[in-house]
Amino acid sequence: MSVTCYPTPGKAKALMICDAFARGASGAVRDPRHGAQPGAAFFYGVVDATARIFNTVRDEGRDWYYADNAYFDRGRQAYFRVAKNAFQLSKIVPGDYKRLDRAGVKIKPWRTTGEHVVVCEQSAAFMRLCGYEGDWTSEVLAQLKQVTSRPVRLRAWNRDKGKMMATLKADLVGAWALVTHMSASANEALLAGVPVFVTGPCAALPMSNTTWQHIDNPVLYEGREEWAAGLVANQWTLDEMKSGKCWRDLNDQRLV
Known about the structure:
- The chain is an alpha/beta fold.
- It contains ten helices and ten strands.
């Protein structure tokens, strides 16, 4: 199966990741301004310059691979997640516990105290890409107001993901729950023992609540270590992309 990687024009990081993936998959890197090629497609994020090709590939039922920052990466940029025909892995899969230890992932006991609800919004462009119609933030805030009297702390979307992750830890202090669509903030909340509510098919979904009526009495799911071990098995270094490990893992149906 051929795969073409479409980096965002002018973005060195996107080109670097696309090049690494293409090497391991025996694929090619192509400027998206030259149009879509036959076969599968790989994207590191999707922006205006690549959205047309992304939509074409998805609408035609072709395989597509979506990469972004890691599910868990304390130093950030050492690992990158990749999912096949999805924005994120959203089920529990066989895990790699040694890899989990190397990643330094620590899971705290579930928290049963707290005051505020953290709401993490995502960009309007990404929500449209996911097919979400409407104003997610306004809708969620209105729905929460109907089912809980707890104060809400809104984390407005910011392009600087590094800065956002740096401030998330403070917002989780004393938090009762976190609400988002597909933000990686949900993964961090689950590690911190903060119950999570999600509205989209994201990595946190297997350990998350999806019904607002439970906001004051969230379900605290068992199995977070197994969940986390599966996620770290689905994030790779650039060297692992170049070697073909990432490509092989993604196309092994037992692992994804």
